[in-house]
C-alpha cells in the first residue's frame, strides 16, 4: 500500500479543503479526493488532490472553461473523469449527481 | 502548468472520434474508440487525444512485419484531424459481474446476510443489504444499507417497512424484515439502518465471501472485495481517500463525505453495477469492513464508498461479531 507520514496527510487534507471550498459546488465537479495518479490503467505511487469532473456537463456547456491550479500548498492537483451515479437499481430514488 | 479543460477542444476531439469510429471501428483489431488524455512513457499528459484501443499493438520490427502481412489493418493516424493515441487493451463482456454470479441474490434469504436484494416498500427498485449491526445504545439488531436504498425520500417515515427481496425483485409487504429507524444524511453519510423484526434469522456473513471480522480504516493501495446484489463478488483497489461528493437528492443539495475511490484490481474488470448500493467493501486479506458502497461509474470503471468508521459513528451502531 502507498504510505505517507501523518504530516503529509494533514497537509494534503488542508489543501484538499481549500480546493473543495473553491470548486466542489461547481456543477461539473463530481468528487474531490486525495489519491494516486493513474497512468495507462496502472496505479502509480504519486499522490495528488484529484478533481473528478462530469464530462457530460462540460460537453453541454461548451463555452465554459475550467482552470485549476497545478498544485495547492505543494500538493499536486490532478484532473480526471467521473460521471458517478448512485447504484441502486433505479439509479437513485429521485436523486442525481449534482 | 495549469490543468485546463476546454470544451471547444473536447468538441473537436469528439468530432474526430466520430471520424475515427467510422474509419476504424470495424477493424477487428479495434476494441474501443474514445477521447481521453494521452499517456506517454507511462505518465498521463494533459494532451487530449482520440484513443484507438486495439487488441494488439505491435511495435518496432514487429509492426513492420505486421504492416507487410496486414496492410488493411494498419491505423493511419494522419487520417484523423486530431492527436491520436493507440492504446493496447481489450474489454470482454461482463454479463454477470465478473461472470461468477453463482447464487440468485434476488430471492428470499433466511437467514439474512450481506450481499442480497433489499428496498423499502415505497420504491420499485432494489439495492444491497450490506449487513447486520446493533444499536450502540440498546443492542437492537438492525440491517444497514444506503439512505437512497432504505429511505430514498425526505418524507419516508420512521417505521417504513423494509422488504427482502427489494420491490424491484418482487418483494412485497409480506416480505418485511425490518422497519426504518434512522439515517446519517445530516452528517453527509448516505446510510441508514432499519430495526429487524423477528421474521427471519440472520448471520454475520457476506454472501460468497464469509464473516465480517471487524471495522477498519481504509488505506490507499488496500485490496478490497464486496458482495453486491447486481455484480456479485468483485474486487478493487482503493486509490483515493477523503473524498467529498456533491449530489442533488431530489432538489436538496447534499455533500457526501469521507468518500473512498475504488478502481478495478485488475485491468478493465467491473467493480460494481446498479443494484450494488449498500454493499460493504471488506479488506480482502482480513475481511474487515472498510467502506459502504453507494455510487459508481463505467467510464472509467470505478466505485465510490464511504469510510465505514464514519458510517457506524453517524448511525450509532456497532458490528455484531
Compile the SSE list and pairings.
The complex is a heterodimer of chains A (98) and B (321).
Chain A: H1 6-23, E1 29-39, E2 42-53, H2 55-60, E3 66-68, E4 71-72, E5 75-81, E6 85-86, E7 95-97
Parallel strand pairs in A: 2-5
Antiparallel strand pairs in A: 1-2, 4-5
Chain B: E1 3-5, H1 7-24, E2 30-40, E3 43-54, H2 60-69, E4 84-88, E5 112-114, E6 116-120, E7 127-129, E8 131-135, E9 141-145, H3 147-150, E10 161-163, E11 176-183, E12 192-196, E13 202-206, E14 214-215, E15 223-228, E16 232-249, E17 252-264, E18 280-283, E19 288-298, E20 301-307, H4 308-315, E21 317-319
Parallel strand pairs in B: 3-4, 5-13, 14-19
Antiparallel strand pairs in B: 2-3, 6-7, 6-10, 8-9, 8-21, 9-12, 10-11, 11-12, 15-16, 15-18, 16-17, 17-20, 18-19, 19-20
Helix/strand-derived class of chain A?
A: alpha+beta
The biggest beta sheet of chain A reads: 4 strands, mixed
Tally of distinct domains of chain B:
3
* Rg from Cα of chain B: 23 Å
Largest sheet composition of chain B: 8 strands, antiparallel
Residue stretches of chain B low in confidence (pLDDT < 50, at least 5 long) are 91-99
> What is the assembly state of the chains in this entry?
heterodimer
Q: What's the number of extended β-strand segments of chain B? A: 21
In percent, how much strand structure appears in the residues of chain B? Answer: 35-45%
CATH-defined topology of the largest domain in chain B: Thrombin, subunit H
Strands in their spatial order, largest beta sheet of chain A: 1-2-5-4
Arithmetic mean pLDDT of chain B: 85
Helix proportion range of chain B: 10-25%
Distance between the termini of chain B: 51 Å
Low-confidence stretches of chain A: 91-98
Radius of gyration of chain A: 15 Å
Amino acid at each position: 500500500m502507498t504510505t505517507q507520514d501523518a504530516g503529509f496527510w494533514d497537509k494534503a487534507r488542508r489543501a484538499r479543503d481549500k480546493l473543495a471550498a473553491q470548486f466542489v459546488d461547481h456543477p461539473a465537479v463530481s468528487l474531490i479526493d486525495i489519491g494516486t495518479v493513474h497512468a495507462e490503467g496502472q496505479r502509480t505511487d504519486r499522490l495528488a488532490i484529484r478533481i473528478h469532473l462530469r464530462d457530460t456537463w462540460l460537453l453541454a456547456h461548451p463555452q465554459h472553461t475550467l482552470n485549476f491550479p497545478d498544485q495547492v500548498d505543494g500538493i499536486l492537483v490532478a484532473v480526471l473523469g467521473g460521471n458517478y451515479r448512485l447504484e441502486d437499481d433505479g439509479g437513485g430514488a429521485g436523486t442525481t449527481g449534482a | 502548468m495549469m490543468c485546463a479543460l476546454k470544451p471547444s477542444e473536447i468538441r473537436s476531439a469528439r468530432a474526430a472520434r466520430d471520424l475515427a469510429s467510422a474509419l476504424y471501428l470495424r477493424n477487428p483489431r479495434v476494441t474501443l474508440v474514445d477521447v481521453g488524455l494521452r499517456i506517454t512513457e507511462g505518465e498521463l499528459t494533459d494532451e487530449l487525444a482520440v484513443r484507438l484501443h486495439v487488441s494488439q499493438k505491435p511495435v518496432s520490427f514487429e509492426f513492420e512485419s505486421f504492416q507487410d502481412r496486414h496492410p488493411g489493418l494498419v491505423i493511419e493516424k494522419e487520417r484523423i484531424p486530431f492527436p491520436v493515441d493507440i492504446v493496447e487493451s481489450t474489454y470482454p463482456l461482463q454479463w454477470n459481474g465478473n461472470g461468477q454470479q453463482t447464487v440468485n441474490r434476488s430471492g428470499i434469504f433466511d437467514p439474512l446476510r450481506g450481499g442480497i436484494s433489499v428496498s423499502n416498500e415505497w420504491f420499485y427498485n432494489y439495492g444491497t443489504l450490506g449487513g447486520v449491526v446493533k444499536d450502540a445504545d440498546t443492542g437492537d439488531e438492525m440491517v444497514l444499507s444506503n439512505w437512497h436504498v432504505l429511505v430514498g425520500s425526505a418524507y419516508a417515515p420512521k417505521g417504513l417497512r423494509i422488504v427482502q427481496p427489494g420491490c424491484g425483485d418482487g418483494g412485497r409487504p409480506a416480505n418485511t424484515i425490518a422497519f426504518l429507524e434512522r439515517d446519517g444524511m445530516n452528517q453527509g453519510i448516505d446510510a441508514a439502518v432499519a430495526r429487524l423484526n423477528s421474521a427471519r434469522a440472520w448471520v454475520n456473513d457476506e454472501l460468497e465471501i464469509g464473516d465480517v471480522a471487524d471495522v477498519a480504516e481504509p488505506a490507499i493501495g488496500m485490496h478490497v472485495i464486496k458482495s453486491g446484489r447486481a455484480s456479485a463478488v468483485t474486487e478493487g483497489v482503493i486509490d483515493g481517500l477523503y473524498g467529498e461528493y456533491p449530489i442533488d437528492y431530489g432538489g436538496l443539495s447534499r455533500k457526501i463525505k469521507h468518500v473512498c475511490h475504488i478502481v478495478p484490481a485488475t485491468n478493465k474488470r467491473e467493480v460494481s453495477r446498479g443494484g450494488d448500493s449498500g454493499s460493504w467493501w471488506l479488506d480482502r486479506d482480513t475481511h474487515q469492513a472498510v467502506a459502504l458502497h453507494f455510487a459508481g461509474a463505467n467510464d472509467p470503471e470505478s466505485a465510490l464508498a464511504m469510510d465505514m468508521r464514519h458510517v457506524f459513528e453517524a448511525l450509532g451502531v456497532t458490528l455484531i461479531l
